[in-house]
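Fill-in record for Peptidase S9 prolyl oligopeptidase catalytic domain-containing protein.
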Amino acid sequence: MDRKIFFYAGFFLLGAAIVLIPCVVVIGLRSNCSDKSPQSTVTASLATTPAGTTPVTLTNTIATIWNESDYQSNSQYYQSLTNSHYFNQTDNLRLDRLSSPQLHPVDGRSLIYWRQQYHMPDLRGSTTTLHWQDLHSNKNVQLTRPIWGKHDQQFTWIDKNTILFLSNRASSDLTQIFQLTLPDDLSSLSGFIEPTQITNYSLNIDNLLVNRNATRLAFSCQVYANLDIEQTNARKQAELDSGRTIYKFDKLYIRHWDEYYTGLRNHPFIVSINRQTNGIFQLSPYPVDVLFNIDSDSPTKPFGDAKAQWSFSASGNSFAFTRQHDEDSSVAWTTNLDVYTVDLRTATQSPVCITCENIATDTDPSYSPTDENLLIYRSHSVPGYESDQYKVKVYNGSMNTKVTLLDNWDRSIQAMTWSPNGQSLYLEIGEEASNVIYYLVNIYTNHSVDLLIDNGTSHNIHPDATQEQTFVFTYDSLLQPANIYLYSWDGSIRALTNHNTALLSKVILSKEVEKFSFMGANNEAVWGWHVAPANGTNQRAPLAFLIHGGPQSSWYDAWGSGWNFQSYSAQGYAVIAINFHGSDSYGQNFTDSITGAYGSLPYEDLKLGLDYALANFSYIDGNRVVALGASYGGYMIYWIAGQPEMSSRFRTLVNHNGLFDMRAMGYSTEELFFTEHDVGNYTVYDNPSAYEVYNPVNYVANWTQPMLIIVGAHDYRVPETQGIGAFTALQRRNITSRLLYFPTENHWVLNPHHSIAWFEEVFNWMRQHAS
């Protein structure tokens, strides 16, 4: 149900600008709270640059006064603590989040990255700033001023002295483009650098991409398809002034993920840029909407971004982008994304679709850094199947040909990055529950691959322009949160950043993490994780039996901001997490095996996996086992509840946003292709029995075990009525149960105070029933 996003939930916590008042409703433990939580980013006023004029350059505009006395890093806070304590979710949320490392574009001797910090110790606010670090001396400098509620993002290192980035530091509180001018010697910098605002549009800028020559850039705004930026702003203001709030729909989507579709679209705008005599970049006065009058998004919603879905050619004269065919309701039951290119030298040139012959997904175009005509992209071959295997295709525009690389692989390629020489590729691939890095030696002559990183979870590769097979990247695992690392040409790897060292030195974590395998359904090998309690295995311990969502996902060797194994082990629980049939990273056949088998093969794997764990980890108390699952994992909780042979093995069940009634899901979820494909490519009306064969709602009469149900009101993937219906069934059957209702959350819990409340409620429930 959420394969592509389940393990990236943490990154949406990173992007949240948060000054929040918790608002949680516990049915049975009611508390009244307003849903009008103050937001850290509020549009106080809208700039009014007339259409067709050059955006005003605003120099050193800071919307909030810097209050140094209100700033404390997590290092400073944890260094002040005297004693160590067992890790908890509050510690997890206090971790600095590091991402998007970029090496110096000329000499590769330093890097810049972004760092998100939370207000210490209460988490009431966050800020994201740019940092610089010298690779040789390890000197680290915070470049931009940390102001609560202000977030720098999507930066590009143009040359040794210039960075362009997005930030909501504008006086209007809107996200705009800023320029940071760096001194020649950053190591001697003693204060912060105040950025220069170079755009002043009346809408937020959501994405930014600059071409290699710094002659053009692309940005996105949410506009009405047939209106420009200023006209969109005027229409939004008129609608606000009308006093009416009415949604009218003639096609799907009505809503998607956590928002209603009321007409605003992500559209890419292209502008020329030039550096003025004062060194500040200026944008051309007429941004060109590449998708003008097309009711579609690029980047695609809800999780697409410019880094993956946009690309400029080597000269900057061509632009490639991904868009979805969502002009009609078929968007809800198809997965047809396509790659388009447009020649920017011709003002009247329309985008050209280069993948329209494939009605499955084509996405993530990336031009060669050296060949104007060469472009790679990721492609599915099965229409309507979001979890199909991604392969890499090479498109040669001069000959209009396509070649599939590594066509005999059975792994799905999650991301790809060109080497600076334009001949090799770095590939991120899910492999046996790790996100590993491969190096494809030469796309022209030698398709052999070298495995560079074979464990943990690696992302955000940025190659060194001066040295082949040298790059920076982020790495995390079940034992450590994300850090920035340098991989060198000789195979050596070293950590570059240490922002969380003080915090980690004051918390007690489990150090015992291991993979195990057993014979699962179909007599095939199935893998799982065992994490021992942080207080050791010398005494009998209860078990947290975790069931992942997706279902075409996996429990990866990755740190999590939400479902973090360490949070459970620190409470004295052993953790067992099975990557059952249908999980990704074990080959496409294994992933595909769950189609039409939601309640069979994975269920057998979970039964056999629990048997294995209790037989092989003797310290686990088999009489104190709790099962927890979210999304598809929540579906499995409901399914287990109706199977007495399995449900009786658990003292209680915990269900987060799970699927309760498959037929109702088939009509109420937004992305119909999920349910239709996963039952065997049937609609509800064509084959109702396909939705009933493994439908938990049909087995409510067998339910006996206490259950905690958690729902988010803005979850449109698994609508709240699924959880409310299950809670109603439990109450009607007089089974001990509780509904935890988050009126402002979606499929995930993003507000840090809500996340803490989530864990408090879950652990209290577990202690009550499994102590």
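KEY FINDING: Residues 365 and 514 are 37 Å apart (CA to CA).
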